[in-house]
Structure to design on (634 residues):
């Protein structure tokens, strides 16, 4: 098999980069417009009792541009979410063709999706469908979405070409054979999705559903994009259960319904706010203040980074932001004081998980969107567990440092003037926290509106303090679009996946099975928690939530669990996976920042902190009001 020219994939990448860059500008304009609309609506409504006409419907249309504009750019950066555990274990002759085969399947799936979205755009155009208030035609926005999905397909084709080149350079017949087998598998999957009657044998309905679920997990563990794996499962599953037409229609309608839902604006808006806060240096101010107060205690520097992560969590909705910001600030200081680097790195990796408990939390947004539970109440439910977890972590660090002072020597004692000066610098974080959480708690704003206000407040404060440059602003917008696209594309297909789960009857079968086992409530929650520990070892938090909540939520509700309490427990458990081997994305992230510390040593450092997770989960299970008290006051 002659190797293609080495520059072919790179040339294709440069060509695709031109429209991809233009698409980013379109997304940036839409993001700015969406933030402006949200802030204007809140201000006018609360000060003058006037609403922006058509604000919600325009936010929904703008979300199509925000969510889809950077799909191709994310692919060119290699940023789409995948689980590569099995890939890493394969020999090179099997790994390279498996990557290429997965990319071919993803590309084919996105082409099918693009065709069906285009059919939606044509339908909207031919029927003259417009928005309800402003009478804005909807088809141009959906047509733009089609363009972005096809551009994503071209980027995937470019990645596939690079994969084929990698196979060719191996000059190994086994690699070629595996690639050809993948091509046959992709063709077979497309045939099953488009012509289910071609299935050579008949399967019972239950078996078809289980087979489709098995296909989904197999594809995910073989490194196929998580979004594509769910899309393929939905296409094949609904097709063999109902019909190909129903399957294709589901993909076309649900994807647009998801990205045009204005509720999803919380993802880019809170992401943007967090990026502005970190880029403006407010996270460093937070750490310095915490250090001044508790740095002199046993393990004080590690405890200070934990407290700072908790404070940062009120602004940033994910864990990796905490890892990168605190890792760059606190690690050098802990190293200078002679900290055991296993403890230093592990404390930051674990403390960053507080970000999914204290709002705004992307994990709670995801859970709320899947289950239709109030996101505002979920946000409130996470506050006390987040504070409690912070106290547990700090106590654990202090006890360990007290028992073995060599692990974490004390820092210097700060004067009261130093403490006051450092504390005075954290007012931007406190103000933004009050603006976001106070607005949600009092009901003055929705979570979406709180995100818009938070972005506007962060921009104004950072600009007033001269910590925001045009380059920083543009970088924050670009990163927001890239991160949001990587998240929302999963939920484009998670909705279709959930629909397939409902049609297959698997949730009812699972519920019947559990009822037949006659498990008590605590036995049931124990089994679910154990499952999340196991799946967290092999899958990141986001895919774990998307794949499992549609299965377990109905079971938990039939057992009588509170949906908000169950959400808190599930989110904590999936986040345990980010510090659990062999995946542990937080561990991977901190290991890239402490290059002299092996991942093995970081994982060794993490294990004692499992005690904190066990204590937290135990307390929330025994005392549910820890998570339900604040929501009950809303």
């Amino acid at each position: 098999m002659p190797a293609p020219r080495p520059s072919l994939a790179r040339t294709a990448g440069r060509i695709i980069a031109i429209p991809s860059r233009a698409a980013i500008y379109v997304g940036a304009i839409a993001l700015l417009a969406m933030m402006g609309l949200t802030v204007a609506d809140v201000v006018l409504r609360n000060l003058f009792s006037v609403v922006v006409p058509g604000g919600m419907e325009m936010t929904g249309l703008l979300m199509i541009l925000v969510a889809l504009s950077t799909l191709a750019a994310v692919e060119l950066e290699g940023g789409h979410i995948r689980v590569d555990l099995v890939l890493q274990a394969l020999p090179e002759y099997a790994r390279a063709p498996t990557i290429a085969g997965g990319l071919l399947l993803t590309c084919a799936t996105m082409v099918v999706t693009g065709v069906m979205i285009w059919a939606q755009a044509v339908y909207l155009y031919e029927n003259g469908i417009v928005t309800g208030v402003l009478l804005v035609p909807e088809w141009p926005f959906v047509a733009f979405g089609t363009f972005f999905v096809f551009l994503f397909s071209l980027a995937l084709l470019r990645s596939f070409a690079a994969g084929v080149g990698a196979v060719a350079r191996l000059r190994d017949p086994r690699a070629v054979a595996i690639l050809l087998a993948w091509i046959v598998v992709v063709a077979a999957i497309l045939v099953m999705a488009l012509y289910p009657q071609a299935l050579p044998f008949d399967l019972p309905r239950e078996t078809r559903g289980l087979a489709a679920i098995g296909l989904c997990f197999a594809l995910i563990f073989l490194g196929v994009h998580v979004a594509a794996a769910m899309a393929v499962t939905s296409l094949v599953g609904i097709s063999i259960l109902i019909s190909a037409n129903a399957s294709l229609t589901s993909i076309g309608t649900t994807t647009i319904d998801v990205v045009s839902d204005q509720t999803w604006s919380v993802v880019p808006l809170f992401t943007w706010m967090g990026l502005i806060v970190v880029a403006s240096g407010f996270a460093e101010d937070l750490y310095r203040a915490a250090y001044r107060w508790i740095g002199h205690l046993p393990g004080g520097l590690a405890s200070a980074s934990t407290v700072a992560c908790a404070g940062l969590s009120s602004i940033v909705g994910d864990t990796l932001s905490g890892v990168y910001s605190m890792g760059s600030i606190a690690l050098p200081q802990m190293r200078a004081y002679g900290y055991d680097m296993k403890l230093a790195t592990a404390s930051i990796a674990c403390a960053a998980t507080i970000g999914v408990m204290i709002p705004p939390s992307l994990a709670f947004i995801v859970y709320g969107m899947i289950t239709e539970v109030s996101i505002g109440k979920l946000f409130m439910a996470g506050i006390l567990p987040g504070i409690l977890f912070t106290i547990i972590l700090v106590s654990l660090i202090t006890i360990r440092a007290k028992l073995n002072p060599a692990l974490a020597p004390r820092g210097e004692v700060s004067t009261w003037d130093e403490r006051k000066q450092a504390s005075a610098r954290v007012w931007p974080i406190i103000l933004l926290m009050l603006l976001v959480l106070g607005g949600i708690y009092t009901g003055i704003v929705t979570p979406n509106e709180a995100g818009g206000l938070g972005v506007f407040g962060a921009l104004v404060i950072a600009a007033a303090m001269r910590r925001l440059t045009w380059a920083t602003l543009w970088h924050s917008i670009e990163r927001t679009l890239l991160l949001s696209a990587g998240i929302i594309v999963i939920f484009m297909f998670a909705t279709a996946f959930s629909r397939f789960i409902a049609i297959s009857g698997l949730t009812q079968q699972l519920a019947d099975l559990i009822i037949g086992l006659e498990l008590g409530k605590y036995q049931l929650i124990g089994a679910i928690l154990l499952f999340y520990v196991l799946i967290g070892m092999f899958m990141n938090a986001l895919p774990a939530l998307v794949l499992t909540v549609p299965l377990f939520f109905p079971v938990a509700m039939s057992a009588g669990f509170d949906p908000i309490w169950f959400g808190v427990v599930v989110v904590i458990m999936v986040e345990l996976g980010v510090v659990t081997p062999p995946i542990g994305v937080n561990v991977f992230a901190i290991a890239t920042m402490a290059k002299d510390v092996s991942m093995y040593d970081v994982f060794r450092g993490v294990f004692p902190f499992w005690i904190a997770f066990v204590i937290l989960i135990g307390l929330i299970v025994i005392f549910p009001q820890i998570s339900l008290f604040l929501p009950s006051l809303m």
